[in-house]
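Database export, one record per block. Field names are fixed; values are copied verbatim from the stored entry.
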Amino acid sequence: MKAIKYLFIAALTAGYSANAMAQDGSKADIDAVKKIISNKPADLDKQMKPYYKENKKNAENLVAFGRAFYEAKDTANARVYADYALQASKNKCAPAFILLGDIAAVADDGGGAAAQYEQAIYVDPKNPDAYYKYANVYRKISPNGAVAKLNDLRIQRPDIAVDALAGRIYYMSNEFDKALAAYDKADKNKMEERDLSDYAMSAFFKQKYDKALEVAKFGLSKNPRHAAFNRLAFFNLTELKRYDEALQYADALFHKSDSAKFSYYDYTYYGNAYVGAKNHEKAIEMYELALAQEDMDNKAKRAGVVKQLSDAYKAKEDYPNAIKHYKDYLSNQEKPTAMEMAGLASLHMQHGSSLQDAEAKKAAFIEADAVYADLASKYENAVEYANFMRARVNAQMDPDSKLGLAKPYYEKLIELIEPRAEKDATERARIIESYRYMIAYNFIVKEDKDAAKAFATKLQAIDPDNEVAKQILETK
């Protein structure tokens, strides 16, 4: 993995050296050498010999030949021609040292790469390529040290956008606050597209959505078909809850951007924007597409999207599908939290409340009750909440209290809360509800006035102005 990272680093500005050599050296010889290398002949050394002889004193051409080998992933010959270039220049060819640094980077030798780039800086202190590549390697050790090297470049080359390069270093090191600070100092008009993209991403990661949107739109003013800028405008507008605008940029990303590749994240945001715009059918379609993407490769990703899919079905009051996907969501969790389990029970309750058929309604409430029972058995700190909700679910199934279905759960709440000397607002509300139920159950169903009055006395003690308690206590 490190080798891949160094290869990426080395490739970032590889074009600089190659282009410079093409301008200064013999383009015909360079083109001929590139053609030989691309053909991969068995007698490569023999075919290269006349070009070496012709250019053995031309360091620029020799390093260009080496760069051509490097780009063909032949680092052995790339090194040979870099060394030839150093011999021809008496060790004064900065691009040759840069090439040797790139070769070391590909070999996962960060220290060796940094040493070669440092040598290139010594030979040519005004070569920005050497500073940037040194900084890219050194950032793994110290991003601040890497930026300090770029500040040396600022002294040598005031014309170079050093702040943007510093922002790039900090961005690649995941130091987004520092990246933003550096990019803020830079002139956007002089930034490369990748730096504008990293600038906007840094702001997005720090939840500075207005700033990220501003930078993305600036990038789009220069290149309206740029996929990253359309994506960033789309994402940030979604976060800013400007859903109609977000959907316009989503359309630009998916249908009006060059070389756009899509991930589950793009489709998930598309779904989020449609949810915000109250188009739940399209949101469901997008979440389904998100789940079908190749990068949907682990349980955590899947769980997040499935939860959003469940929420979309819930928003359109399609409770059977909302429940189905919520169960899928829970199954993708290592251990669902108490709150997550309660979410499933809540869906069952909402489903039951939405039904007209008495038996179907009861079946939904029974499902909710079972989830709350499971919650109480698995989470000790959720026992009180679970009993409170079971009391309410059973009260829904027994609205006239004739069966006393809610009675055991209200009694359990009284048992749990009553002994507490200090009760918070939630506890007071729950025990008041419990006393009221027990008063009604005993007075109306059991016709036990004494028991009802006993609970009325307790209710009045905690809620002196309660009218139900007063009425029961005044009963003869």
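Remark 1: Confidence is low (pLDDT under 50) at residues 1-25.
Remark 2: The radius of gyration is 35 Å.
End of record.
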